[in-house]
């Protein structure tokens, strides 16, 4: 929903009724993940995507019907369909799409959900997409961590027992940043099901802390902002660490890097999704900083810029400072993937590519040089024998 949030909010606040199509489950090489949305407004304008173009026309037709009737639909698209080539999903994937009509009447809680997303507060929306009682299908339940202090207008899935079950599961999914199905079985399962709930999560933005207020950092900050990170730039030199030099950063901190990271650690503002990019390229900054960074229990990525000679010197200094071999193995140095990058922009792409690959457990190799499924989730399923 984030992809169409601005347009959805504008139409919802104006009283317009729109059709919202959401991917709720995928199998094999489906092009978009659960949670991907496409919006069709009352004028017929299309915003967003559920398949990167494969089945957009078919979903559009369904959305216009749902917008007219108000009756939600759950539809599967994939190679198992007789008309797979007609709708265009010839990639071998399968996706289930939930299409519903959204308005101020049908989704009164949307305004508060949007406020949460805008202010980077974690929130999840659970929608009942399958139930033995058709009158309950389409009901919603909004879930927030207790720390948000917002329990107004949460809605309900129709029973306190189901709300409680989904509440606990949705909090777990918020923590991991995943959207997906909760219920007696997955869509497409051959077993008899009475309940299926789709939980769309909107966790806080993951953090990226960039140490070193240099031109390479400026390029990385711009790209990180585009990728959805909440970005902090930290440097001990006030003449370089200015907001005007890093307009895309959420904050610019003038502080010795190792001291700032220790403060953030002690305040519990570093978590398993946090990315640390050390671009200081100066031993007096990066060695004490990396002593702190590599001893963090949970962090998504720690990378440091420099040549191989710089890395070897830095590693020797870290070992001398007491950093263990296990801790040193957490360091991505030299930072980035082998793209032949030269300019700050190219280097930023190299670093971001490595971060993305690390996040998804991917190899970073050229896809044309590999075989098997493109998406890492499907590769993992094959490995498990699914």
Features:
single chain; 386 residues; alpha/beta; Rossmann fold; 12 helices; 21% strand; elongated; XdhC_CoxI; XdhC family protein; XdhC_Rossmann_dom; MoCofactor_Util/Proc
Concise summary:
With 386 residues, the protein is α/β, with parallel strands linked by helices.
Distance between the termini: 29 Å
Q: For the largest sheet, list the strands in their spatial order.
A: 12-11-10-13-14-15
Class derived from helix and strand content: alpha/beta
Q: Considering DSSP H and I runs of 4 or more, what fraction of the residues is helical? A: 25-40%
Number of domains: 2
List the secondary-structure elements in sequence, H or E. HEEEHEHEHEEHEEEHEEHEHEHHEHH
Question: How many E strands?
Answer: 15
Number of helices: 12
Question: Which range does the strand content fall in?
Answer: 15-25%
Regions with little confidence, pLDDT below 50 for 5+ residues: 185-192, 378-386
Largest sheet: 6 strands, parallel
Mean pLDDT: 86
Rg is 23 Å
Question: Outline, from the CA principal axes?
Answer: elongated
Present the secondary structure layout.
Elements: H1 5-14, E1 18-27, E2 37-40, E3 46-48, H2 56-69, E4 73-78, H3 84-87, E5 94-102, H4 110-118, E6 123-131, E7 140-143, H5 160-176, E8 180-183, E9 195-202, E10 207-211, H6 215-226, E11 230-235, E12 251-254, H7 257-266, E13 275-278, H8 283-293, E14 301-304, H9 308-320, H10 325-328, E15 331-332, H11 344-360, H12 376-384
Parallel strand pairs: 10-11, 10-13, 11-12, 13-14, 14-15
Antiparallel strand pairs: 1-2, 1-5, 2-3, 4-5, 6-7, 6-9, 8-9
